[in-house]
Amino acid sequence: MLQDAQVRYHHTLDDFPSGYNDAVRSVRKLIEGAAWSDVLGWLEFIFKHPRCPGTFAATIDGIMTDCRLAYRVFDGQVICPIGSDAERETIEWAFLDLAATEFHGARAHLRKAAEELTAGQYADSVHESIHAVGRKGPGAERGAVESSCRT
């Protein structure tokens, strides 16, 4: 996973650390020296990696909760800013509603909106949010997406 992240963010393997301790130091340097949006983006990349341990996102979410960060992990792979517990609950319900229906396109737009918001790309986040609430499957009745917006 770390090697894949190195390629994605630095476009090189030349200076990839070969030993475990060197790799840990490299990650620590990134976390300590990078902008917050880069660190959160790096974490989202790791969450989506096929070899990411199943409990890693929940562990990070627990740390965010314990540290009272204004961010939480949603849907096991998206970090999103939150302003209150009620807001967190609404976002969780939106992802759950979309997972339980045929609104897979809307769920993808909601994930992308959260990613863009976390990255500070506010216009892109609004654009994706509009698509998330306007997205319906063929022949779908009004339901999950609309009800989550009224919460």
Strand order of the largest sheet: 1-2
Biggest sheet record: 2 strands, antiparallel
Q: What class, by secondary structure content?
A: mainly alpha
- Fraction of residues in β-strands: 5-15%
Provide the succession of SSEs. Answer: HHHHEEHHHH
Mean pLDDT: 77
Q: Total strand count, please?
A: 2
Number of helices: 8
Unreliable segments of 5+ consecutive residues: 135-151
Itemize the secondary structure elements and their pairings:
Elements: H1 2-10, H2 20-33, H3 36-48, H4 56-66, E1 71-74, E2 78-81, H5 85-99, H6 104-118, H7 122-134, H8 144-149
Antiparallel strand pairs: 1-2
Helix pairs in contact: 5-6, 6-7
Which descriptors apply to this entry?
151 residues; mainly alpha; 2 domains; 8 helices; 64% helix; globular; disordered C terminus
Summarize the structure.
The protein is mainly alpha-helical and 151 residues long. It has 2 domains: 33 residues, no CATH class; 112 residues, no CATH class. Helix content is 64%, strand content 5%.
Give a description of the structure:
This protein has 151 residues and is mainly alpha-helical. It has two domains: 1-33, no CATH class; 38-149, no CATH class. 64% of the residues lie in helices and 5% in strands. The protein has eight helices and two strands, in the order ααααββαααα. The chain has a two-stranded antiparallel sheet. A hairpin with a 3-residue loop joins strand 1 (71-74) and strand 2 (78-81). Helix 5 (85-99) runs antiparallel to helix 6 (104-118) and helix 6 (104-118) packs antiparallel against helix 7 (122-134). The protein is globular, with a radius of gyration of 17 Å. The termini are far apart. Mean pLDDT is 77; it is low at 135-151.
